[in-house]
Amino acid sequence: MSNRGRAIQILLVVSLLGVPAGAQSPAATAANALDYDAMYRIKDEGFERSQVMETASWLTDVYGARLTGSPNIKAAGDWTVKKLTEWGVQNAHLEPWGAFGHGWQNERFSASVISPTPWPLIGGPKAWTPGTNGVVTAEAVFAPLEEEKDLEKWKGKLKGKIVLAYPTREVKASFDPLATRFNDTDLKKLEEVDPAAGPRRNYNRALYAFTPKRLQFLIDEGVAAVLEPSRAGDGGTIFVQQGGLYNEKAPQTYVRYPEKVPTQVVVAVEHYNRIARVLQKNVPVSIELNVKNAITESEQAFNVIGEIPGTDKADELVMLGAHFDSWHTGTGATDNAAGSAVMLEAMRILKASGLKMRRTVRLALWTGEEQGLLGSKAYVKANFGDKETMTLKPAHSKISGYFNVDNGTGAIRGVYLQGNDAIGALFTDWMKPFDSLGMSMVTAQKTTGTDHLSFDAVGIPAFQFVQDEVEYETRTHHSNMDVWDRLQASDMMKNAVIVASFVYDAANREEMLPRKPLPKPQPAQPATTTPATVKPTQN
Question: Of 22, 167, 230, 394, which sees the most CB atoms within 10 A?
Fold first, then answer.
């Protein structure tokens, strides 16, 4: 950083603080009042000596991607425990939560059209699918399989082929920006709760109902490989997750493919569409694939845990966390090295600032989130209570709340109250030191898809922050472009400071955070899919 940049940064810190170093606001002496001296020290450490981007680089450039069960996530976990210990965080360790299933890691991928005109393909294999056992060259067939009649149409015609098993997808010009920030109107809309709208980030799993039949048909046909267009994105960005079935109600049996399951590859939509158009002209297309995927035996999954002991309320707890795992075609930067690095930086700030906290502060970085919040669910059940029976453990009454970050690199603009209206006024007060950072709203809306749900399910106050949607759904979320360079340093620094401050306020508040009424038991629903039970071939 230049001297001019350093001077600007110092001015920024001072202007954001509003009181000189060491000064104590008179109101801060009252119970639960804001401690502006603490806010100054948190901001000073977080803006002047930030390590958040360096931490993110280790988690992505060195140890990404971090697919649960892979060698990379174990190496990333070991590094994180060592770093937490260096910072003075106590009891940093990897805490097992159960058998996950087979580990998986892609070691080599190349794909090219050989004829009629040679050209390379942009693509990536789907997780937990086997490779090709060396170089495979085969004829391509465009055979979209969307319903039962399609299976009948192609029965007996696909053996040994590389099958384009999905329809083409229209590609439109990008007239709308890929990255956006919430404006005042957007934030106002977020504050308004529509009871009929349902939670944000709600997913329609019915779209995947035909997947088991399609996969079994392709297995029975004996195809060489399956290609599909990226579900979203264009311009070479591909979105890739797992290939096939898994049972959310039995995660320990996560993926068990039959021996003859085909290699499954996601291809850039423009490349997929080009192949399909050529085939529709009755011009033969030959494709060469070389995919090597390493599949390991069942792994013990873990969460990363560390804590800062409290003073006079040390038996009470405030938690912060983010999911540590990622998908595999990128390096898992915005999803969710961003959240993990922010939470790690928040812990570093709290230690380095020398601030004392009455309650114990515990960090948890979860694995298995991408497969259904598995790590956080297991942790909550083991430590606090069972959502299926609402049988609660003694520690349930000792945890004040949980804070989560898992919506990309975008700046924090507010907090989802998750329906906990009683806490709205308190959070509004806590946001006052960050008005100049753009954090200004609370919304009673509920949001889904993040690990705060595991805590909320047993009645623990749990919150996901509202973040600007910087390229998240358009470019980085589960994509090959989810890499360090897409992280926004200023946003990451702001987020770490805000989280550290919220955790500090919660840890030092006289009372614990207000709670909603306990939810009713949520018995497990019958599983809708059943994974096969044969170990996949390693290649």
Answer: 230
